[in-house]
TrEMBL record:
The lineage of its organism: Bacteria, Bacillati, Bacillota, Bacilli, Bacillales. This is Uracil-DNA glycosylase-like domain-containing protein. It comes from Paenibacillus baimaensis. InterPro entries: Uracil-DNA_glycosylase-like_sf (IPR036895). It comes from the Bacteria.
Amino acid sequence: MQDWNQLHHYIDAIQRLPADKPLTKQDLLIPDFLLHREGGLEMYYAPHNEYINQAAKLVILGITPGWTQMELAFRQAKQDVDAGLSLEQIAYRSKQAARFAGTMRKNLCSMLDQIELDTVLGLSSCTRLFEDQDEWLHTSSVIKYPVFSHGLNYTGHNPQLVKSQFLSAYMCSTLNNELKQLANPLIIPLGKMVEDALNLLVSQGVIERQSCLSGFPHPSGANGHRLQQLKTNLPLLKKQVIQFFS
């Protein structure tokens, strides 16, 4: 059974948000949602990573939710709070709205199809993991809540995630707890920064190395090398997927 206490704590603040329009940083990057500030880093609450699909066969992990995901999650949550939905419904629907939304989701699904995950799972395309077969999928982030560095999306650099005492300690406590609720899924880290973070958990015995896909590039359009990286790593990626699910 999942604990919705965090979401419950923010319902009143969500209810006060403006309705029926995109939200701004002036709406969301406010003391009501601020979780922690350290140096140039700020961490804010967002509702979409509260929902954990404990039956997932596949986990896709980013670094931390960016502004786009945060805004979409809050906008959906505001609609659902106003509609009187349950905490579980609010968490799930904000997850649906926000997970790797936009161009990144399109890039991600195309890349997953290229490593033939769709074939191994018996899907026509991995886009269906975000649609009618999302019961197989859990999405999350190494840092589950949005982090901003000097007001910009945190990318895992400056400071490096595994070298930041605050971020690495937060990751170890929250991600450990999250992954322990899942039944041995394949974990796909998006990019080297996330892969390095998972390697830290492997070294601590939290997860098995064979459960983590190695060499999958970050699907962001800002990663101009992603297609070449994918092409280079394709044989190894396909082999890992087949071995895990065989």
